[in-house]
């Protein structure tokens, strides 16, 4: 699975499959935990795989009021 914060993949074309996301409540000291963020990314990868996607582009992370939300667009490479 290719993961990218870019809205596209240079030199690649793709079809959009859908929106993927993960949300988790965190204490501020836990937000930077690699384990927690990796778990959220794995959730998004699972959603993308259910859509037969091979990449997630335009990944964005937002953190406010103890909640972390990661969003992205699942795509199928051509």
Description:
The longest helix has 17 residues, at 34-50. A hairpin with a 2-residue loop joins strand 3 and strand 4 (67-77). This protein is an alpha+beta fold and 78 residues long. The mean pLDDT is 91. The two termini are 14 Å apart. The chain is elongated, with a radius of gyration of 13 Å. The chain has one domain (2-77): Translation Initiation Factor IF3 (2-Layer Sandwich). It is built from one helix and four strands; from the N terminus they run E-E-H-E-E. The chain has a four-stranded mixed β-sheet, covered by helices on one side.
* Helical run tally: 1
Q: Domains counted in the coordinates: how many?
A: 1
Question: How does the helix and strand content classify structurally?
Answer: alpha+beta
What is the share of helical residues? Answer: 10-25%
Main sheet: strand order: 1-3-4-2
So what's the overall shape? elongated
The secondary-structure element order is EEHEE
CATH topology call: Translation Initiation Factor IF3
CATH superfamily: Hypothetical protein apc22750. Chain B
Poorly predicted runs are none
The CATH class label is Alpha Beta
Roughly how many Å is the radius of gyration? 13 Å
Number of strands: 4
Fraction in beta strands: 35-45%
The CATH architecture category equals 2-Layer Sandwich
**Termini separation (Å)?**
14 Å
Mean pLDDT, as a whole number? 91
How would you sum up the major sheet? 4 strands, mixed
